[in-house]
Amino acid sequence: MDPVLIGEILAGLMFFGIIGFLMLGFPVAFSLAGVSLMFGAVGMWFGVFDPSNFGSLANRYIGFMTNEVLVAVPLFIFMGVLLERSRIAEQLLITMGKLFGNMSGGLGISVILVGALLAASTGVVGATVVTMGLISLPAMLRAGYDPKLACGVICASGTLGQIVPPSTVLIFMGDILTGINAQVQMAKGNFAPVPVSVGDLFAGALIPSLGLVALYLCWVILKAIFDPKSCPPTVVPEEEKKGLVKEIVVALIPPLALIVAVLGSILGGIATPTEASSVGAVGAMILAATRGRLSFSVLREAAISTASITSMVFIILFGASVFSIVFRLMGGENLVHEFLTNLPGGVAGAIFVVMFIMFLLGFILDTFEIIFIVLPITAPILLNMGVDPVWLGVMIGVNLQTSFMTPPFGFSLFYLRGVAPNSVTTGMIYKGIIPFVTIQILALIIVFAFPALATWLPKAIYN
């Protein structure tokens, strides 16, 4: 049999083998590396894989550890975790609830707005969903909200951390797309390509993410108009109203100023994402200290949580590197290239298939796992077909956010299920998220139809 065909068959079997191991419950990083090593050994047996290729892993790992851009990841995670552990996020939720609670749908509006603010400060979906589930869900249920609507609002706004900059997902995608775009342009003979940076991706995601927030708000407002019983107003006691203005200033302005300073410095070209993330981490500590909530125990919890999340992400990245080497060198990349380029519909057909595959993988894999596995395989082909890298990154971000909350396996649904009271059934959570998944798909179609929504702002800022 043709060695090229044998290699492509093994590459395809390896991909589905990894999916199978993951569905059996094996850890992602070890499944990626272990299955890839096993198939690499089989490839050696058939003479279609050279084990000396593993020698490049050391340089890859050192490259990850010395990559200045990726230093921003633990710092942004620390910033968000500290805001959560110091209960600044909780105070923000309570205050916004008082501000909008006396209008129909007000609590839902508050949760969406706070979810967007937390997304811009944490970028950690699990922490945001759990925090809002613990604080907002009981309050919304006590106010007489339809449990389905309450669950949908919390899950949808909690997943905004996937796409609202400065998202850690966007940092990794920006770093990966930077290298891939340079390789593709050089292969085309362009030895001075226009660079793609994490800042470009942040700018590109800003308008679509704000559009998503606006669509969520529109849905809650429509529910308030046409089905007011599902989201009734709450009564705020007069004594609480007296100090509300001061409470809003204290609870809202400092976190908002921190977010504007961090994101504004990146978009304005004043600071790199890494420099801005350090400002965000220090700013979060200052905010916690000014409110008397910065203690050694809080710092210790935030540091441990940051180390845990960061280690999880990077060990997945290391495992994905083993997969990438074996898959590509056994001919998997050529297999994917032939598949995508021969699809009907050209570029649009290829984009649709890649988005659909990522959407399905979102049922069983975390966002980081998907981008580490799928993006290095498909992005070179799509960019070679003329797809804009910033637009592709934003499309992937919106798409993965959609899969993150789609029944039956959406991760945010399980996060909420873990903290929701027994009176809220899993069926209620699934039904409540359906309108928001529909909104997500609509947003994905809009960004697909109007690429300028993702590409205009980066060009306006950086060109």
How would you portray this structure in words?
With 463 residues, the chain is mainly alpha-helical. The protein has one domain. The chain is 77% helix and 0% strand. It has 21 helices and no strands. α6 (106-121) runs antiparallel to α10 (198-226) and α15 packs across α17 (367-384). The longest helix has 34 residues, at 296-329. It is globular and about 80 Å long. 50% of the residues are buried. The model has no long low-confidence stretch (mean pLDDT 83).
Give the SSE map.
Blueprint lengths: L2 H21 L4 H19 L9 H11 L5 H14 L2 H13 L5 H16 L3 H18 L4 H12 L9 H20 L10 H29 L11 H5 L1 H24 L5 H18 L5 H34 L2 H10 L4 H16 L5 H18 L4 H16 L6 H9 L6 H24 L2 H11 L1
The span between the termini is 52 Å
N-to-C SSE series?
HHHHHHHHHHHHHHHHHHHHH
Would you tell me the structural class of the helices and strands? Answer: mainly alpha
Contiguous uncertain segments of 5+ residues: none
Calculate the mean pLDDT score and round it: 83
Total discrete domains:
1
Q: Provide the helix percentage.
A: over 70%
Q: The biggest beta sheet, please?
A: none
Shape: globular
Cα radius of gyration in angstroms: 23 Å
